[in-house]
Inverse folding.
């Protein structure tokens, strides 16, 4: 299963496979998102889901319950469950 992910405001797009972190899926497509620890701790990669379903792969990622309710995610430890639109203002393309 794969899902289409659109980043705002850049309009960059990539495909995320089920079971693949959004950070890794973006990188595989040549899209750079800010990152550091890559294990859900540092919050460098924090961004916000606008549409679609994204779930964390850790029970306690470094976002609060309230933040999660508002759509904030850590894409290094999150994967798509549907097509999604994500606010990621610092996203850039390798190109
Ligand atoms: S890179 Fe550190 S929380 Fe995602």
């Amino acid at each position: 299963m794969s899902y289409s992910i659109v980043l705002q405001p850049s309009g960059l797009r990539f495909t995320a496979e089920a079971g693949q972190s959004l950070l890794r899926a973006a990188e595989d497509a040549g899209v750079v998102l800010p990152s550091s620890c890559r294990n859900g701790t540092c919050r460098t990669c924090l961004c916000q889901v606008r549409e679609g379903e994204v779930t964390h792969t850790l029970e306690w990622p470094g976002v609060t319950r309230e933040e999660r309710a508002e759509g904030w995610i850590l894409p290094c430890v999150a994967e798509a469950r549907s097509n999604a639109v994500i606010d990621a203002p610092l996203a850039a393309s390798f190109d």
